């Protein structure tokens, strides 16, 4: 099994982190991160 280089590990980490890239929304009430599956809109506002 060939050893992985630093750049290959960095690329893998970047792909994984980009999966969670859209999770930067914060709750207006408590300022915690809101994930897309948990997001609830009321009267057009999140």
List keywords for this structure.
mainly alpha, 46 residues, 0% strand, elongated, 30% helix
Protein described:
- With 46 residues, this protein is mainly alpha-helical.
- It has one domain.
- It has one helix and no strands.
- The protein is elongated, with a radius of gyration of 17 Å.
- It starts with 5 loop residues before the first helix and ends in a 27-residue tail after the last helix.
Instruction: Count every helix, treating DSSP H or I runs of 4 or more residues as helices.
Output: 1
User: How many domains would you count in the coordinates?
Assistant: 1
Gap from first CA to last CA: 48 Å
Overall outline:
elongated
Organism: Helianthus annuus
Protein name: LIM domain protein 1b
Briefly summarize what is shown.
This protein has one helix and no strands. It has 46 residues and is an all-alpha fold. The longest helix has 14 residues, at 6-19.
Draw up the topology in text.
Layout: H1 6-19
């Amino acid at each position: 099994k060939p050893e992985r280089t630093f750049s290959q590990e960095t690329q893998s980490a970047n792909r994984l982190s980009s999966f969670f890239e859209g999770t930067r929304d914060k709750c207006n009430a408590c300022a915690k991160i809101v994930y897309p599956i948990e997001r609830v809109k009321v009267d057009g506002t999140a």
